[in-house]
C-alpha cells in the first residue's frame, strides 16, 4: 500500500517561529494529504491564523489571504468585474493604461480565491474569520472550494484550479457555522495551550527569559485564567504582559493583588475592579 | 469497522455516507499508518463539532483500544499502584528485566510487558473487541516503532493516544455538560443564533438596481431587514434556591456578553416562584410591577432560569409564597400562566438535569406544562434557542 504520508513532499513539520504540537502537525498533514479544507476553531490567541502563514513558510508557498467581512457575498473573493472602470474607459478612453475596452479580461480582477486558482504554483489559501459571513456565503464558498472551480458569470467562463490550494479556514465561533459547511471541512478545535506548551511558546518570543521569572509569570497567568473573568487573558495578553514587565525592568510578576502591569492582562474595567477586590455596584 | 461507525452513531454523532467513504479513501491511501494518526484522521472525518469530541474519544477508546478494565484516568495510579510495582520488582529480581530498564525503557514499554504477563496469566482474550494489537491480547495493543506500546509520532515528549483520550480534554464541550465557564463560548454562539427580527427598513441597493434595470428604468425600491439584531430578551433568574447558586453568576456573564448583539437584554430576579412581582436587583429589594413586566410581552423573548423545584404548596396554594408575610392570595401557577400568556415566545431553563426531573419534584412537571422546559446544558440551551426561533417566527408574522 503506498504511503502518501511518507512519500508526499508536502509535509509540514513546523517552523522555528511557531510552536506546533504533534497533534496539530499531524492534522495539518492529514488535511493536506486528503486535500480537504481545514477549519480551525478555538479561543483567540491559540495561533489559528498564524498557522496558515507558518504552513506557507515551511513549505515555501505563497499565501492568499481573505479576511472575511459580514458584507461578503462570496463572489468577490473569486473575482470582481469592474463595470464602472469599463464604462469610464469606454466614454473617455483608456488612455495609456494599456486596457482594451473590448477585452473584458482587462476589467476582471481576481480575488484571493481566483488568484490561488489561476496561479501556476500551489498556494495556501487562508479564509480568516469565516464566521463573520452569513451562512449563504459560506455555502457558496464551499461549493467553489470543493469543485475547485468558479464561473465568471458575465462571460460564462469557468475558472478551474490549476493546483488545489491548501485551504485553511479560521473561525472564532461568533456564530455557529452551518452543518453543510462543517460537513465539507476537516474541523479541529485548538485547545488552549497548557503550561508546558506555554513555556515553549513564550520561549520562542523571549528566548533569554530566566526560568524562575517565566514560571512565576505562568503561575499567575493560569491563576487569573481560572478566576472566571469576563475576558480571561489569552496568549497574546501573556506575551504583552511579559514584554511589559521586561521592558519595565520588573524583577518578578508579583503575587496576590500586586501583579505588575495588570492592565496588559485584564482588559475590561469590570475585570480589573473584580481583580482588585472592588465590587462595583451591580449593573442589574 | 461498521461497528465503530455504528458506535459513533449511537453516541449521537451525526453520520453521513460521505464521511464513511472518505474514511475508507483515506485508509486506502495510507493516511493512518498507526493508531494515533488513525485517531486524528477518524476524528477529522467524523467529528465536526467540539461538542462531540468527548463522545468520539470514548467510542474510539472502546473500539480500537479495547475497553480495558483499566480506566485511562487511572493511568497514573496504575503506574504507582501495587500490582505494577510488584510485578516490576519481581521482574528485576528474577533478572528478566535488567535494572537499567527502569531508566532506559519507556513507560509504555514497561506497561506493555506488564500486560503481557498479566494476560498470559489470566489467559484472557479480548479477541474481537480489540482492533489493534497482536491477536487482541493486550488491551493497549502495539504498532509503535519500538514495540513499546502505542507511542505518538515516535517522540517521547508526547502522550499516547490513550493518554490523550484519558485526559478527556473535551468533556466540558460535550452536549450534556452543564453550563460552565469553560463552555461559555458554545453557549454564546448558540444564543447569537436567535433569529433576528425587525422591520425591513434598509434599502437593498443591489436588488433595487437589478429590479429597476429589469423594469426598463422604472425605479423599484427593495427593502431588506437591517443587519442589526433587534431581538429583545428578558431573563428572569431564580436566585433563591440552592441548586441555582452555581449558575447565577455564569448566567449573568453569558447574557452580559451578548448584550450588544441584541437590542435589549433585561434581567430580573425572583425567589422560587413568581407572585406578581420580580425584582431588578439580586437582593430582591427593587420590585418591578407586574403590569410593566407584562407590557413588553409580545415583542420580547423571555427566558426563565430556575430549578422549578419548590414545595407544591408554593406553586398551587393561595398565600403560597415562601415569604411568610405574603399577602398575595393568587397561587403561583396562576401567576406563571399569566406570564406565559403575556410572553408567547418564552422558555424555561432548568439547571437540574433533564433525567432527574420526574423524581426531583412534582412542581417541575407542573411548571413544565406551562412553560416549555429545557435543562441548562449545551444541548438544552441549543434546543431552547431553536424553540424560541420557531415560536418567534410565528408571533412576528402574526404581528
Q: Notable features of this structure?
A:
heterodimer, A: 284 residues, alpha/beta, two-stranded antiparallel ribbon, 13 helices, 43% helix, 15% strand, disordered C terminus, B: 399 residues, five-stranded parallel sheet, 18 helices, 9 strands
Q: Can you lay out the helices and strands and say which pair or pack?
A:
The complex is a heterodimer of chains A (284) and B (399).
Chain A: H1 4-7, H2 22-34, E1 38-42, H3 48-59, E2 62-67, H4 75-78, E3 79-81, H5 83-92, E4 108-110, H6 112-118, E5 123-128, H7 135-147, E6 149-152, E7 157-160, E8 166-171, H8 179-184, E9 186-190, H9 195-205, H10 211-226, H11 235-247, H12 262-265, H13 269-276
Parallel strand pairs in A: 1-8, 1-9, 2-5, 5-8
Antiparallel strand pairs in A: 3-4, 6-7
Chain B: H1 2-10, H2 17-28, H3 35-46, H4 53-64, H5 75-80, H6 82-93, H7 101-104, H8 107-122, H9 161-167, H10 184-192, E1 202-203, H11 205-214, E2 223-224, E3 232-238, H12 245-257, E4 264-270, E5 277-279, E6 287-289, H13 290-295, E7 300-305, H14 312-316, H15 332-342, E8 346-350, H16 357-360, H17 362-370, E9 373-375, H18 378-398
Parallel strand pairs in B: 3-4, 3-7, 7-8, 8-9
Antiparallel strand pairs in B: 1-2, 5-6
Helix pairs in contact in B: 1-4, 2-3, 10-18
Structure description:
The complex is a heterodimer of chains A (284) and B (399). With 284 residues, chain A is an alpha/beta fold. Chain A contains 13 helices and nine strands. Chain A has helices spanning 4-7, 22-34, 48-59, 75-78, 83-92, 112-118, 135-147, 179-184, 195-205, 211-226, 235-247, 262-265, 269-276; strands at 38-42, 62-67, 79-81, 108-110, 123-128, 149-152, 157-160, 166-171, 186-190. In chain A, the strands form three sheets. Chain A has a five-stranded parallel beta sheet with strand order 2-5-8-1-9, sandwiched between helices. Chain A has a two-stranded antiparallel sheet with strand order 3-4. In chain A, strands 6-7 form a two-stranded antiparallel ribbon. With 399 residues, chain B is α/β, with parallel strands linked by helices. A five-stranded parallel beta sheet of chain B has the order 4-3-7-8-9, covered by helices on one side. The two termini of chain B are 53 Å apart. Classes of the chains: A alpha/beta (284), B alpha/beta (399). At the A-B interface, helix 2, helix 8 and strand 9 of A face helix 2, helix 3, helix 10 and helix 12 of B.
Amino acid at each position: 500500500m503506498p504511503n502518501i504520508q511518507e512519500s508526499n513532499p508536502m509535509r509540514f513539520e513546523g517552523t522555528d517561529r511557531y510552536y506546533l504540537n504533534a497533534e496539530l502537525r499531524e492534522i495539518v498533514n492529514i488535511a493536506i494529504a486528503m486535500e480537504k479544507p481545514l477549519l480551525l476553531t478555538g479561543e483567540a490567541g491559540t495561533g489559528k491564523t498564524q498557522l496558515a502563514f507558518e504552513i506557507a513558510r515551511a513549505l515555501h508557498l505563497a499565501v492568499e489571504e481573505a479576511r472575511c467581512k459580514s458584507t461578503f457575498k462570496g463572489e468577490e473573493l473569486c473575482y470582481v468585474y469592474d463595470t464602472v472602470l469599463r464604462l469610464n474607459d469606454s466614454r473617455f478612453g483608456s488612455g495609456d493604461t494599456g486596457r482594451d475596452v473590448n477585452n473584458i479580461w482587462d476589467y476582471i480582477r481576481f480575488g484571493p480565491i481566483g488568484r490561488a486558482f489561476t496561479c501556476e504554483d500551489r498556494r495556501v489559501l487562508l479564509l480568516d474569520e469565516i464566521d463573520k459571513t452569513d451562512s449563504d456565503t459560506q455555502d457558496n464558498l464551499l461549493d467553489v472550494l470543493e469543485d475547485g472551480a468558479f464561473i465568471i458569470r458575465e462571460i460564462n467562463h469557468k475558472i478551474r484550479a490549476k493546483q488545489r490550494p491548501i485551504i485553511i479556514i479560521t473561525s472564532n465561533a461568533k456564530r455557529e457555522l452551518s452543518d453543510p459547511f462543517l460537513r465539507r471541512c476537516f474541523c479541529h478545535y485548538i485547545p488552549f495551550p497548557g503550561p508546558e506548551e506555554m513555556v515553549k511558546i513564550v520561549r520562542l518570543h523571549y528566548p533569554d527569559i530566566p526560568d524562575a521569572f517565566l514560571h512565576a509569570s505562568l503561575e499567575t497567568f493560569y491563576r487569573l485564567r481560572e478566576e472566571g473573568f469576563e475576558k480571561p487573558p489569552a496568549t497574546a495578553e501573556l506575551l504583552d504582559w511579559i514584554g511589559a514587565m521586561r521592558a519595565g525592568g520588573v524583577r518578578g510578576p508579583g503575587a496576590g493583588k500586586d501583579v505588575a502591569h495588570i492592565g496588559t492582562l485584564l482588559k475590561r474595567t469590570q475585570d480589573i475592579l473584580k481583580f482588585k477586590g472592588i465590587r462595583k455596584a451591580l449593573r442589574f | 469497522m461498521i461497528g465503530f461507525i455504528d458506535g459513533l452513531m449511537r453516541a449521537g454523532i451525526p453520520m453521513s455516507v460521505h464521511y464513511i467513504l472518505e474514511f475508507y479513501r483515506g485508509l486506502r491511501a495510507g493516511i493512518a499508518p498507526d493508531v494515533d494518526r488513525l485517531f486524528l484522521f477518524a476524528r477529522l472525518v467524523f467529528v465536526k463539532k467540539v461538542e462531540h469530541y468527548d463522545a468520539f474519544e470514548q467510542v474510539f477508546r472502546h473500539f480500537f483500544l479495547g475497553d480495558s478494565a483499566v480506566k485511562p484516568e487511572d493511568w497514573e495510579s496504575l503506574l504507582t499502584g501495587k500490582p505494577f510495582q510488584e510485578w516490576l520488582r519481581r521482574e528485576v529480581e528474577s533478572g528478566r528485566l535488567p535494572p537499567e530498564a527502569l531508566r532506559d525503557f519507556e513507560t509504555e514499554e514497561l506497561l506493555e510487558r506488564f500486560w503481557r504477563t498479566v494476560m498470559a496469566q489470566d489467559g484472557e482474550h479480548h479477541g474481537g473487541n480489540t482492533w489493534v494489537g497482536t491477536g487482541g491480547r493486550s488491551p493497549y495493543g502495539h504498532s509503535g516503532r519500538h514495540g513499546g506500546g502505542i507511542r505518538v509520532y515516535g517522540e517521547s515528549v508526547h502522550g499516547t493516544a490513550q493518554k490523550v483520550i484519558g485526559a478527556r480534554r473535551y468533556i466540558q464541550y460535550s452536549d450534556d455538560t452543564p453550563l460552565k465557564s469553560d463552555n461559555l463560548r458554545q453557549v454564546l454562539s448558540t444564543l447569537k443564533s436567535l433569529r433576528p427580527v425587525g422591520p425591513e427598513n434598509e434599502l437593498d441597493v443591489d436588488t433595487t438596481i437589478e429590479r429597476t434595470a429589469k423594469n426598463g428604468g422604472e425605479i423599484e425600491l427593495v427593502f431588506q431587514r437591517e443587519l442589526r439584531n433587534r431581538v429583545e430578551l428578558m431573563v428572569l433568574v431564580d436566585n433563591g434556591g440552592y441548586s441555582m447558586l452555581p449558575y447565577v453568576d455564569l448566567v449573568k456573564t453569558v447574557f452580559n456578553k451578548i448584550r450588544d448583539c441584541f437590542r435589549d437584554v433585561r434581567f430580573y430576579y425572583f425567589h422560587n416562584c413568581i407572585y406578581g412581582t420580580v425584582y431588578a436587583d439580586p437582593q430582591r429589594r427593587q420590585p418591578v410591577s407586574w403590569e410593566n413586566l407584562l407590557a413588553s410581552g409580545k415583542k420580547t423573548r423571555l427566558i426563565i432560569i430556575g430549578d422549578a423545584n419548590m414545595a407544591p404548596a408554593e406553586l398551587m396554594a393561595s398565600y403560597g409564597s415562601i415569604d411568610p408575610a405574603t399577602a398575595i392570595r393568587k397561587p403561583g401557577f396562576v401567576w406563571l400562566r399569566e406570564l406565559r400568556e403575556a410572553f408567547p415566545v418564552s422558555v424555561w431553563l432548568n439547571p437540574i438535569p433533564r433525567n432527574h426531573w420526574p423524581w426531583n419534584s412534582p412542581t417541575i412537571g407542573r411548571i413544565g406544562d406551562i412553560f416549555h422546559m429545557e435543562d441548562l446544558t449545551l444541548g438544552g440551551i441549543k434546543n431552547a434557542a431553536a424553540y424560541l426561533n420557531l415560536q418567534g417566527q410565528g408571533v412576528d408574522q402574526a404581528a
